[in-house]
Amino acid sequence: xxxxxxxxxxxxxxxxxxxxxxxxxxxxxxxxxxxxxxxxxxxxxxxxxxxxxxxxxxxxxxxxxxxxxxxxxxxxxxxxxxxxxxxxxxxxxxxxxxxxxxxxxxxxxxxxxxxxxxxxxxxxxxxxxxxxxxxxxxxxxxxxxxxx
Amino acid sequence: xxxxxxxxxxxxxxxxxxxxxxxxxxxxxxxxxxxxxxxxxxxxxxxxxxxxxxxxxxxxxxxxxxxxxxxxxxxxxxxxxxxxxxxxxxxxxxxxxxxxxxxxxxxxxxxxxxxxxxxxxxxxxxxxxxxxxxxxxxxxxxxxxxxxxxxxxxxxxxxxxxxxxxxxxxxxxxxxxxxxxxxxxxxxxxxxxxxxxxxxxxxxxxxxxxxxxxxxxxxxxxxxxxxxxxxxxxxxxxxxxxxxxxxxxxxxxxxxxxxxxxxxxxxxxxxxxxxxxxxxxxxxxxxxxxxxxxxxxxxxxxxxxxxxxxxxxxxxxxxxxxxxxxxxxxxxxxxxxxxxxxxxxxxxxxxxxxxxxxx
Lengths: 148, 359
Ligand code: SF4
Ligand code: SF4
Description:
The complex is a heterodimer.
Chain A: H1 7-14, E1 37-40, H2 50-54, E2 60-63, E3 68-72, H3 81-85, E4 91-94, E5 106-110, H4 113-147
Chain B: E1 4-9, E2 21-27, E3 30-37, H1 56-62, H2 69-84, H3 90-118, H4 122-142, E4 152-153, E5 156-157, H5 163-189, H6 191-197, H7 205-210, H8 215-219, H9 250-274, E6 289-298, E7 301-310, E8 315-321, H10 323-335, H11 343-349, H12 354-358
Antiparallel strand pairs in B: 1-2, 2-3, 4-5, 6-7, 7-8
Helix pairs in contact in B: 1-2, 2-3, 3-4, 3-9, 3-11, 4-5, 5-9
The complex binds iron/sulfur cluster (2 copies).
């Protein structure tokens, strides 16, 4: 039976440099794949809602018309399923954990006014086109009716 | 006449990492009987099957436990893959094996540290956790998470281990092996440590068998049982022996777990050497229909996953039987006749994971 056989290890420890990082004085380093938080490149989002349906913790919500995307950072468990599901690949897993907060608030991202305006114009154009097509159809029908 | 009294132990107790409550019937300083009660951290994860689809459940099952997290996600995926008849690509099987063994290693180091803490050897406790940190670093390098990896999905894995990462893993294994070798004599030979472990909480082979114990706890009593021998994932191609001890006491449990760390190092090396070059995941179509029953070896012992699916995205039932649940009966047996001062240590020797048990 050995007695005090921890002493060499303990003595060795006295002369080693600390194994911990003195965060926050030294910056924390995260590996490339680290799952820290979700970032969205909002202008590429098409508002399809795939991410909201995929999210296991229900942390996301999107509003297509208003061009907003909301995340509740406290609900998000940083699993990365939304990133995998997004068809436009506009969600990213970034390294670096979120800082603590005093309130459970959601974070809202809104598309930039130019993109919103462009989308609005597109929608208007599409609506006009549809209306025109509808009118043309009606006119055709009416013409056929009078022919009879 | 000797006087009996009941001492409530837990759920809040400095030695317990997680909440479990024991009513200890004691006579002087000896335990006559221990009555456990659990249910303090029940989160209703199994019933979430009604609200989450079977793909989302992978992330839910991973969060059953903070230490054997990988195993839970893995067991659940195996069960669903079994129902859907999915052939998982070979590389995915090997990667799963590597991550599984890495998580076994960090879990056993955690346990060694807690054990040292349990018998009052703070410095040794920190040594173990310092070594464990290297494994966690490699895990976050390869998966992105320290203990919750989120790399499993139905049909395979989501991330690959690149050649550089394989080098990082094998360097880590070399240094961990060396450092573990330094502290093994302290656990196995030091006089003061031995006095706390040898002959404490003896459970005979027959008792362990009758009470249905699992994992290292059962192996320390001489039962040769290891679900990895069933050959799931890549274990069928890898060479390893079941580690047992015949002492049946706390010393034996420590011996088994220390040697399992060395064994895991060896298994990971074999797997890294054989890593096949295939796809990472199979294509999954449709919803599962049927039922399946999977047994895997978690760091704490045999875990069972039962899944029943009805052809819709939502499963009918998902059930997990965790090793700690199986070992609670054995624990109460070992507590009988023990000294009051050894209770904390004995609870630690089954490596309790109460959060898994209650889900
Ligand atoms: S990372 Fe997971 S929990 Fe967080 S928003 Fe995405 S899907 Fe939801
Ligand atoms: S899945 Fe992608 S594109 Fe669709 S709403 Fe979410 S972020 Fe936008």
